[in-house]
Queue: 3 jobs
Job 1
Amino acid sequence: MMEMFWWEEDEETVHEAVFAYVEGLEETQKYMHELNIRNARLYSNVDLLGLDWSLTQRDYSRKSLGRVTENLIQSVCDTATSVIAGQRARVTFQTDGAEFTVQRKARMLEKWIEGKFDETEFHKEATRAFRDATIFGTGALKIYEHLGEIFCERVLIDEIKVDEMECRSSDPRQLHHVKFVDKEVLKADFPDFEEKIEESTKQRFNRQGAYRNMDENTAVCVESYHLPSGKNAKDGKRVISISGATLLVESWDKDYFPFLFYRWSEPVCGFYGQGLAEQLTGIQLRINKLNAFIQKAQDLIAVPRVFVDIASKNLKMQLNNEIGAIIPYRGKPPVFHSAQAVSPEIYNYKESLWRRGFEVAGISQMSATSKKPAGLESAVALREYNDINAQRFAYQSQEFERLAPKAAERFIDIARDIQKRGGECKSVFHAKKLVEKICFKEAAIDDGTYRIRLEPASILSRTPAGRSQQVVEWAQSGIIDTDEARRLLNHPDLERTADLNNAAIEDIEATIEDLLDGKYDPPEPYQHLEMGMKRVQLAYLKARRDGAPEDILENMRRWIESADYELKLVAQLAQQEMMQAQMMMQPPQASPPTAGGPAPGAGVPPAAALSPQSQLLKPTGIPT
């Protein structure tokens, strides 16, 4: 009789099949768990209670092992994380030849995704997953729905169970997430199984108790996934089980697992990648051995010693720190000797191993110590130097950047499922001084009408010398004037200066956004109306080509006409002021006397009822 797969079992017995499969898989691939423990110890130099199943004492997990005295692996992994994962790229949605409404929704979808990334702390969790990849070889992110909300969390790769034999030539079709969960949390999520959950915490994970310990407050929960075998196949399954009970069984129609994986180095075959900790193990162990040798030699040989003549009399076998002490002696004086403990070649060899470790990882040792090469002061030179260093990590950087668009696709897919069930998936978009609530229903667009792209992060220099050089370049190119450059050289706040210099055009762009959203605010005299008329006109022509509604086009025409009226009004008032000034400068002309004498106020130019500045502040609009 052919043995059934776990996803083919009945709901009442599927947990037994799952636990039996996971037990056998963990026993067969126990080498992966042991490798993860070794890599974690090399990185942190402590035993981790949450990783090593054999540990039961809570206070023992943070005791230093005393094996690593100079941690090359930790330095290299942290530097790689800072260099590659420290930049945040922004996800954008590009539409090719789409209608105007689709383009507007794509812009709203960008804001929705950015708000969700902030809400779920995606970038923080992705950075943690990247560090895991440098240590263990593979980092994992889990993006899932719970009670109508989207969550993103980093998952320790040791909790992911995949049969590498299934991944010899293709991606896995089944995956198991084994995790310790607080029993009260499980009871809150599955109130119908409170007794079964309580019993499972007392059984110490029956089958796997040989090498996995747990306390009475946690239960081992296994979340299992099997992907559909084909487009119309019905064997996709998701199961959540504990020892002794099946908590959840449901169909799984997605062609992916709710996980995103990042690998520092892709395996030739199989599932798990190779990290920096594994690549640098040999060098780290050699450095540890050399340090132990040097330490022992220093303790035994480099200790100061005093040689005295045994024939000397009145010899006292002691030393003291008395100042100006007079010690009488007879015979030869004592000889103080400090021997060289280790040959300089040993120290040079150890330093070469340290440098070699950074070279193997492709990391500049100056990056690890936050130093720049001598002579590189200009922003151009620093950017070129950073570009050269980034070439070594081109593959790792590109793979890490792909996590953001992949995560965006998962967020959108989950939001569609929530919307189909009648729920709402809202997001809060935070701009510099703007908070906007966006519902996914208003921003949703069909698949195939957009492409997800990444925008680069800020390229402004971070070092004071580089920022000062950037100020000089801006002044030389005419971006800022001399006074502004002088102020910035004292305090190079480039971001604020860039914001102020872009305030006019960003204000016009915000006005265009409001007009395209159907909001109309009349132009103000203090706006850059010349720029506004030009850019609003260009936006009007593009919106008309894209098929924008007539009311939006009418608002844009109305704004252009109002801005034109404001400019003409300003020009008219300026001309009146100039004429008045000219009249004031001309000497009064003598007029023939009249019988009644000169009229009151003769020769005095008429005064305006309001000053030109006051007239500019009145409400504006299209004249009727």
Job 2
Amino acid sequence: MSSQPFTTNSAAVVTTTAHVRPMSGEQAALVARFASPTIARVRRNSVRLISLTALAMSMAACNTIPKADSRPVLAEPNIPIEQSYGAFDKETASNAAQPSIAGQRWQNFYSDERLKGLIALGLENNKDFESARLAIEKARAQYQITDINDLPTINGSGGYTRQAQNRTDKNPNSSYNVNLGLANYELDFWGKIASLKDQALQNFLATTAAKDSTQISLISNIAQSYANLSYSLAQLKLAEATVESRERSLFIATKRFEAGIDPRLPSLQASASLENAKLAVLRAQSSILTSRNALQYLIGAPIPNELIPTPAVSNITSQKIFNAGLPSELLRYRPDVLQAEYNLKAAGANIEVARASYFPSISLASSIGVSSGSLDDLFKSGAVGWSFGPSISVPIFDAGRLDAEYDVARIEREQTLANYEGSIQTAFREVSDVLATRATLGEQLEAQYRLQDNFEQTYQIADARFKAGISNYLDVLDAQRSLFSTQQGILDLELQKIVSQIELYQALGGGANLDVPSVIPVPQHTNLAQIVTGTATSAKTKATNAIKAAGSARVTTPQEAVAIKQSQAVETTTFKPTAIVDVNEDGKKDAAVGVVTEETRFNNNSVEQVPVTQIVEP
């Protein structure tokens, strides 16, 4: 076998389909660590254990273990992460000088007391949100299960047997036994259980972020349904007033037709205008029912009468200027981005789990028990027996299974990285879309109000000219129709304005109550291997690590991004054919059989692990 050494500035891992690997310097270091005097102090038969370990490691010498990669993960969503958003109206800003509205709790952002009451009901009763909360408890329990793997499992058993040598045996033997056994307890020298804990912690944090996403969506949907119901009530009020006006117009037009003053056309148009107004009433009533149903579903209970909104609420927030902050703040406030980040960290931990599988698995097992042919003599000293000993399982030949599992873990990490970058792009697009909607909304409203003034004056002039006998009633009917349509448009635009405020708050990540302390699980148990090697962590370190794990990514400088790119592994694949064959049996050789060699090279030193738009995942 040949060896490709790992050096300070360059390293290579070569994998072929033969799956034959040299023993790395890292393996030798691990043998030396395992053979340290600390273990000798713990075990009476240390010489035997060291010899057994050395034998196991020598048996594994043909397995090359992938080099530990502690370089930062560089995410490149390709958006202007540190530049302000574009396209805002007079009520919207984007700068780092003022805090983003996403940092406000929903209780402070929304000022409408009825709406706040409905949101509180929704957070208490909504089943989707309850399921999201329960998912957190499930993830916490799963973390505890993983943490318990650092403790030994002790089982007790007892039994009674009675047997005879043959059918003619008249003196069958009886046997009683009681045993207490330590099941195979894995010593985590290679960090497999620790990596599983890291993975479980990141899965827990991803679940909490998913709950925050559900909360943000629920609050936004309640607020939008509240606004829809309010403006549906306003549309109904406008339509009913228009019906009354149209009924008077139809009465006048009919009387003038019956008196022979006007032709039949004005009365027909007045009747059509009345029917259109009645249709508007029906549409508004349907919209009210739909909005009430949506609101009732979201809050998970009947809507209290005192929380029904007034028609055309003008403000649901006391905010005057809506500051969107900078795109980089989405990394901290958007829970879906945080969820994708935690999934990326979990995938990184899974790579370490796959890497640890290359090392020998070292376990301890012991038992103590008593047995006797007589129940009275069962617990006498002579009936006691015991056993104790370590065991080592070494991967020698697996036909490439470990390599495939490691490749799967690496590819999954790349997939989660792409998902993380995609979540940032989605967040940026959603904020930009809301800002684009708001950019001209104020001007549209101003134009619509000017139209209303215009048509009100047109109606007054047409009505005066009609009463003076200068023009016919058709001009009055036209002015009424135009004024009604404009008033409906104003209500639609006012609703869009309210909804855009809600959507901007949601798109920026507002409503997750990020200021509320989170209960992050920390390891409660320590593996014996960590105690033996002196790597056990204190309670303060555990808390610090948990807080660090829950932190969000940071934005790197262009220079650091270039350095990270240069330090990334360069993967090359070469194919060496061993035979050319004719698959189709047409006299032409059209396929090759050979050996594929995959080579990964690291050009720079490994740097501190940080989940790194360029964005560095700490």
Job 3
Amino acid sequence: MIKIYKRIIAYTLSFAMLLGVTGCGKEKNKETSEETTSVETTTEEEPSVDVTNTELTTEDSEEVDLDSPEAKAEQEKFDDWLWEEFVEGVNSDSITLNYSLANPEEYGVTPTDATYGELDFSEESIEQDKQDTLDYMAEMEKFDYSLLTADQKFTYDILYDEYETYLLYFDNPYLYEPFAYTSGLQSNLPITLAEYTFYDRQDIEDYLTLLTLTPEYFEECLAFEKVKSKKGYFMSSNSANEVIRQCTEFIANPEENLLLVTFEDRVNEFEGLTDAERQEYIQRNHDYVIDYIIPTYEKVINVFKQLKNTGNNDLGLCYLDGGKEYYEYLLKSKTGTDKTPEEVIELLDGAIEDTMSELYSQLFADYDAYEDYYEAMESETLYEPFEYKETIEYFEDVVDDRFPEIPDIDFKVTPVHKSLENIVSPAFYMTPPLDDYEHNSIYINQGSASSQSLWSTLAHEGVPGHMYQFVYFLSNDPEPIRTLQDFNGYQEGWATYVEMMSFEYYDKYDNPSFAAFEAANNKLNLLVSARVEIGVNYEGWDLEDTQKYLSDNGFMPEVAQDIIDYVVAEPGNYQMYCTGWLEFEELKTYAKDELGDKFDEKEFHKVILDAGPCQFWLLRNRVEEYVKSAK
């Protein structure tokens, strides 16, 4: 039976392995000062699973003997099923396999021929995907939930809720955007290929084969864009122009392309090849990049030039048929929150008000210090020059009293290739394989990341952010299938949560008050951007509405159009960072209020990290259990 994991992985292929900093391409401290009809269901029968009546819980309604032979048998059966799903999912495409396992044979996984995985946007395929999802959920419901262990129930709830959420996608499938601003195929595939690891010779061959398959993979996505255009769902003209710009810059100097330079480096480092074999591989890669990759990006440029004025909407999602409902799906799927858009708006408004109040208190306490801070920020003298790797190592030392220990790790911090400087985020972390989490990579975009923003960026991407969180999770032997899931609200929310702590660790500000100013400024940048994002995409704000909101709240209204252009192109993106961060803050406040003097921040963080990436309602259950046991 073909599981829906294959389809989801294919749809998110270009984004799943990259985790970037707040703003996804906008420079920090500039985010608020600069910066058809849905497919008809053709299935005559009603869905086979009534998901609306499915109640998930991590607690038993009655006592069950989990050590009974019956329970043990059910637990073993569920474990076997999870393992089968992992093996099938991890082997569904070559990139997922390469990024997930360094030694697949040790996991009983036999790699298939090189492939990008299944990708089919036809109406028939979309409808089949929906039925596959329902079948998958029905298969899960065959297990006796009451006989599973607590950890198994947690995994069950994560999986089931994920697919229940995914069903919402099928109400408006033509609002999906494979060529999005910063999370799109065109911007993320080059880095994904450039970081494809050569563990053995077959990996080199598979990589080269993937280059030859790239035109076909892109062609399916371009065909989908043409269908979107006919149905009135094509992206805004500004977004289309941005895709054209990104592709043009990526192929501007074919003989110096990222995929040529990085391949040569990896092949030269690969042991066991003769000089002749290395040169043969390098020549093949050169030919494939020139013959397959460059023409593919040229075709994207040509198709988008043809389609760029066919979109019917330059404003938010809610102006498209089904757009408001699709935004509700994006909010849930991208953040993992169970809050409604209205509740998220209330959360954001409250956080903005609280942060503004904190900032005004600081201003009244020492306005001269704020003027000095603002001058240093404007002149980019707030931070002294620092080395990237040394800074992350510094964070490792100074945060150990607030976060649980992780194993020793090796990591590198590398500048992105110049061909990507105007395409990718200011920085991003490449997630490591399940069985090789000791080796990690962080990329810094020196073309867009200001040195004044890199202090918090390195905390976000490194320690105690993404790298720390992933190493902690993987070193605690998680259920393998969970490593195939992307809970960006948890992942980006965690990285943003700790990023906001980073300013207090910089000990070279001219005035100690600068740390509080810097934290408030960064919080407001993100909060206001997220508020505009949901205002535009869910509430229907236009340029005038956005300008008024910014002006009324003391921000620069002249940057409204830039912000609108970004949030229209990447709906829900800011919420991964902002709503995710606020969910963590909400959980922390709850635990502190309940425990008072008994609250232990390090233990709280351990509860969060032990749970691993998941939906926030499930994380809330874990925190409530921690609070109950700690009282």
